[in-house]
Amino acid sequence: MPTLPWYNEILNRLIKRDASILDIGCCFGQDLRFLAADGAPTAKMYATDIVSDFWELSYDLFRDKDSFRAEFITADVLNPASPLTALKGEVDIFLVNQVFHLFDKERQIQVAKNIIALARQDSWVVGWQVGSVDGVVLPVRTQTGGSSGSAGSQTKQFHNKETWEALWQRAGEETNTQWSVVTHMEPLEQWGYEKEDTAWMGPGATGLEFICRRMASSRL
């Protein structure tokens, strides 16, 4: 999180503009806590994951149940009618780390559209994920290392600059919004990945950091 090129911009917006932030796929909430440790207030922090187990354990891990005020919402980000709809039009910054690369292209579009439904007029969507210099679509691997044949989850889309921009252009068109997209490629080794972790993706595997800024002229 702190290595993102836009980390200081995110932190300054949270501190100086009293912005809200939603961490999607939050796990233990470690990224929100890093921001809090750097001075960001926690009253407008929200976190979501499909199960609450890790969030509950996080209070034991960080020993901050009495001081960390972020609100956790159990929800499926793929569901447009999830409990996250309570935040419709209220979120300034979306933190989406290692989420999009879990899905195929159409599900990624759905996630983007669900995010947009919660966004303010000048929202940011920031994060990082596994990408590919070639912007490839690959079969989903099973636990045995083969490819999955399950209906609806046969592939994953791994983005490069062009395919990531195209995803947000399409999501914007389908929601009548416009987004300015900036990306940055980073070697996966910098994130602690071993070469064997992504060998199945081929030589083009890379890290993709991104910030997508909603343009003020867009309307839902």
What would you say about this model in short?
By secondary structure, the protein is of the alpha/beta class.
Write the layout of secondary structure elements.
Elements: H1 7-16, E1 21-24, H2 30-37, E2 45-49, H3 53-62, E3 71-74, E4 91-96, H4 105-118, E5 119-132, E6 137-139, E7 155-157, H5 161-175, E8 179-186, E9 205-214
Parallel strand pairs: 1-2, 1-4, 2-3, 4-5
Antiparallel strand pairs: 5-9, 6-7, 8-9
Helix pairs in contact: 4-5
Explained architecture:
This protein is 26% helix and 26% strand. By secondary structure, it is an alpha/beta fold. The strands form 2 sheets. It has a 7-stranded mixed β-sheet. β2, α3 and β3 (71-74) form a beta-alpha-beta unit. The chain is globular and about 45 Å long. It starts with 6 loop residues before the first helix and ends in a 6-residue tail after the last strand.
Overall, the morphology is globular
Low-pLDDT residue spans? 143-152
Mean pLDDT: 92
Topology as H/E string?
A: HEHEHEEHEEEHEE
The counted number of beta strands is 9
Note the total helix count: 5
Keywords:
5 helices; alpha/beta; 220 residues; single chain
